[in-house]
Every structure is written in C-alpha cells, then in structure tokens.
Amino acid sequence: MGGIRLSNESNKTIAALGEFGLINTLFAPLQGSGDDNLKVGQGDDAAVLQIPRTQQLTVTTDMLMEGVHFSSDADPFLLGQKTVRVNLSDMAAMGANPHWCLLSLALPASTKLSWAEEFARGVKEALALYDVSLIGGDTTASKGCIAINMQMMGLLGQDRAQLRSAAQPGDRVFVSGTIGDSALGLAQRLGQLKIASADDRAYLMRRHQLPEPRVPLGLALQDSAVINACIDVSDGLAADLKHICQASGVSARIDLERVPLSEAARNAVNASADLESLLITGGEDYELLFTVATGAVELLARITADLDISITEIGEILPQGEESRVEVVKHGEPFTLGKSGWTHF
Amino acid sequence: MGGIRLSNESNKTIAALGEFGLINTLFAPLQGSGDDNLKVGQGDDAAVLQIPRTQQLTVTTDMLMEGVHFSSDADPFLLGQKTVRVNLSDMAAMGANPHWCLLSLALPASTKLSWAEEFARGVKEALALYDVSLIGGDTTASKGCIAINMQMMGLLGQDRAQLRSAAQPGDRVFVSGTIGDSALGLAQRLGQLKIASADDRAYLMRRHQLPEPRVPLGLALQDSAVINACIDVSDGLAADLKHICQASGVSARIDLERVPLSEAARNAVNASADLESLLITGGEDYELLFTVATGAVELLARITADLDISITEIGEILPQGEESRVEVVKHGEPFTLGKSGWTHF
Hints:
2 copies of one chain form a homodimer.
Chain A: H1 18-27, E1 38-40, E2 47-49, E3 55-65, H2 76-94, E4 97-107, H3 113-129, E5 133-141, E6 147-157, E7 172-176, H4 181-189, H5 198-209, H6 215-224, E8 230-232, H7 237-248, E9 250-255, H8 263-271, H9 276-281, E10 288-292, H10 297-304, E11 311-319, E12 326-330, E13 333-334
Parallel strand pairs in A: 4-5, 9-12
Antiparallel strand pairs in A: 1-2, 3-6, 4-6, 7-10, 7-11, 8-10, 9-11, 12-13
EC number (chains A, B): 2.7.4.16
InterPro entries (chains A, B): PurM-like_C_dom, PurM-like_C_sf, PurM-like_N, PurM-like_N_sf, ThiL-like
GO biological process, one term (chains A, B): thiamine biosynthetic process
C-alpha cells in the first residue's frame, strides 16, 4: 500500500474516483498496522478499540473551514499536516499520548484529485510524526466550501490530565517556544504586513502553516506531575491565559517584555512597534502555556533541560479579584491590547 | 440549566453571542451529569474518559453538509435530531451501547440565533433518547454553507462487535422495520413524486427526517450473539448488502417481493410501479441489515419477539463466485435496478 500518489493527470477530479475510491486509495493506507489495541478499524460502521486498563482515553476535535481557517489556494499538503497538528497540540496540552484519529472531509465534486492526494500525503506525514493511526471517518460531497474535521484520541495515566482549572495564586506562568510567529506569518500572507527579510518571511510562514505540536513537552510535564494548569495557545496568548484564569477562578499578570520572541518576530517588532499587541492576541501558536508552583520551578527546569524546546517564565497567577482578568505589563506599566483574541463570529 | 431557549428575538444572529456564548448557553447543558466514567468534560483541551475494563470502545463519525445532506430551509430541530440519530444507527449496527459524543458545527455569522437554539434543542432531545452525553466539540464560523460533524462513542463487550465481514454462504438475510420510506419522503420533498394521501405524505416525511436508530435491536442481537454480519442501511439496501458481501467475500440474492414495506410505501408502489427500484437504492433507512445462519433463525425469532420492531427475512447469502454481487429477484425472475446506491460525488 506504500505510496498514495495515484495520478499525474492533474485535471482529474475526485468525482472520477467516487467516495469509496477516495477512501480506499487515499485514506485506507493511513491506518497503521501492528496496533494490538485496534480491534476493528476502517471499513465497518464504527471502529473498536481496546483501552489498556491502566490508561484513560482523551478525545478532542477540531474543524477547519475553507475561507475561515484556510484560503482556497492553501497548499493541500500543508493543510493536511495542520489538520493533524492542531489536534496533536490539544493532546499535548492534556499531557496525553496521541494514538488514533478519525477524519471527516467534505469536498466539492470539482476538487482536483491531485488536491486530495496532496492533502492525504500531508495527513500521512503528520500522523507518522507521532505514530497516530487513522481508524475511521467520513468522506462526502460539499456544494460549497471544503470542510475538514478531525477527531483525535490518546491515552493518559489515571488522574494525570493537565487541566485548565488547576492554576493557583502565586503560580509562575510559563510558555514554550516563541509567541507571535504564526500571527505575523498570517498577517504577511494577508498583505497586512511587509517583512523585509526573505529568511524571516519564510520562517514566519512556516510557523503559521506547520505548527509544531509540543507532544514531548506535554508528556514530560505530565510524567513528572510538576505543573498545575495547562492549555495550548490557539486563540492567542492573552485569551488562552484568560481561559486558564476563568477555569481556575484566578487572575494573572504577564510581562510583555518577557514573552519569548523568535529572531524574525523581534525584527518585525523592531521595525514596527505597534505589532506588539498582535503577538499575544493573534493566536495559532500551538505552544504550551502552563502554571507552576514557585517551589516547583527548579524541578521544572531540570525536567525540561533535556528537551529540544525552550520554556520561558512570563508572569504570575494572582488572586481572582472581582473577576478573572489578565493584566499585561510592559516595563512595569499597564499595556493596553489592541484586540483580545481570535473572534470566531 | 434546564431549558436552552434563550431568546424570542428571532432576528438576532449567533454573532451576538460569539463562539463561547454559543457553547456555554446552547451546548454546555447537553453534557449529562452523574457519569462516573467522564473524568474531564467540555471546556478543556480534550475530554477524558475512563473506559470500564470489561468493555471495548466503539467510535464512529458522520458529517452533514448543507446542500448535500440537508437543504438551507431544513427544520433545524429535526436536523439536530438527525445528526444524533445517524450516529446512533452506526452504534446499533455494531451492537454497541452509545454513551458520549462530540459535535463540530460551522455556521455563517448571519445564522439566526433561533436556528442555533432549535438545532441544539433537536440534538438534546435525540441525545436524551439513549442517555448520550455531549462531552466536547468545536464551534466555528463558516464563510459558506453550514457544516456539521458528530463523533459518537459507545461501549461493547469483548469480541462482541457485529462486523460487515462475518457473513457466510447459506446465511439468511434479514432486515428490520420497513425499507424505502425515507427515499420516498425525500423524493416527495424534492418534488419528484406526488403522494396523494396526506397521512402517507406525513408518514414518509417523518421517516426521512426522523430516522429511528435500532439501538435496542442491535443490543439484543449482540447480547445473544445470534447473528453473523450486520450493517445499518444508509446507502440503500442493495448497496449496503453489497458492502457486506464485499467485506465477507460472498454474494447475495434478495427477493424484492419480500422486502418489508410500510403501508404508505406500498400505496406509492401500487400507484407507480417504477418506484420499486428506488425503495432499495434510495438509502437513509437506518434499519439494520444482518445475516443469520439457518440453524439460528428460530432462536432469532424468539430473541426479537419481545422487541418493538419487526424483522423480515428477504434473501440469502451465496458463495462469492467471480466477484461479490447482489442479485435482486422478483417472483423468481432477475430484476434490474434503476441505480445502485447513493453516490456522494
């Protein structure tokens, strides 16, 4: 079943294959082999899994709509990758080990077969990163836009979920990697921003199109039980910290100048200071944002020292006060955000 | 949280509530309470489930697209119901007990709030039928059509799945309920068919809009381990029997005059004999189609006698021959179908 490239006839549409042809040729090969826990896979009315008795099941879902989450001319290979990676990021936030997924895909009949092939190739590459198996789904026609939905399932030890609701006043706030790259990549793509350096442009676009789910970090944090609350940054650093605050009944303060930036993002802010708000409101960073009791910070440093990802302390958790809020401070002075998080409607 | 009706302001759109408002007011209440197996529910990056150690997990997904699976003016209450019921039907086919679901919903910002309220009310009513809990999902904007995806999970004893692949030559072929009502209801809705009787019109429309998932039958069959192969009829009786044949490496013959029809469908066929093909190719019946060894037919009759659903023997499983095929016979003569199954592209 090795390759999934079917055709060099670039004008052929998916209608030539039909639903079952698409599934059999493009998606059946994405079900891995040798999984003793998979009792029934693709091709029946439902998949059947045996969950190991020491483990809990984690399950998440993400929908990606053409014109909202991606443009009509988006690279289907990268889109396939991103579909998987945003779900992997949710698994990382819970500290779970991803294993299985289902994919629903609605495509106009006029969709080029080459588009579907490239999309499936992107899904395949991203699934291979973390040995995740596609065990079912639904492929159907669309009379309008392309709609993609993926559900992902993973395993987690008993009582080991890293929740949004576990932040405590006094906790230190940490974030992985760098923040704002994806927002800058998107702004550039939409023509709202000109980045002078070609290297910086390429770096920011890659961060937008190909987010790196922090699965190894999530597993290491969960394994050591060193942190309190955790979330992945999808709506924007400020908005997602607010989600932690609301779920935990606390507030938070972050220092803008401590928010870790890539060299490319630093260059962009140096060229145009009014981008600072965008960095922490733009979203789609897919980094982990988490809180740690002060006494555990040293242990955290030891645990994460060997991982291939930096973590940075950016603020602290405060008592809730009248309502949960996130205070952003720059050099000790209150900083007003341009907009607050990704708005879906 | 009892009611989920928010507003009589029928012109208000969902944009007034926003994503989190929609989730909190419409969908959060659909997570049941008192479920000891649900460790983390809605509101975190992923849900967490404890699967009982004697049970396996079954998981399925279905996507419904505006313009393909439902029309723009479809009743949102019935659409919410159907979204749940088609997934319940997959659980029934596996013999699984449905427990949890996730819902992804992409809506244009101009969608009326009353539409979303009615849709959520329909989902709620159908979930309540089988005590299924909504434990997560994704709500997002759409720039085009409405897209709906539901993933459902259930529990099943070890080695108890009712597979498509277990049919044996000599098996008798059975189907539950009546066949073709949904196809006639749809044809009437699309103006392709005029049904004289108002009662018949209403009955057929209801069968199309509000399919009855055969969960109790599926559980009874699984519990007694009396059947071989099983599938739910979504693509059409002939097409789904062919799915069984292909998965099992067999062929089949059915007698058209034995296919169980409702009084309304019988009246329609009596008025227009050329509808006969449509009955077994139209799809969306959501009845169970299953095969039983000859020696087990008597036991089957005893097991199903107390259920509130009829089952009818319509044919038999044959050796495969050169390739898997479904032969349709009417009064002993070969019958040629008008079209074969629901085509998605």
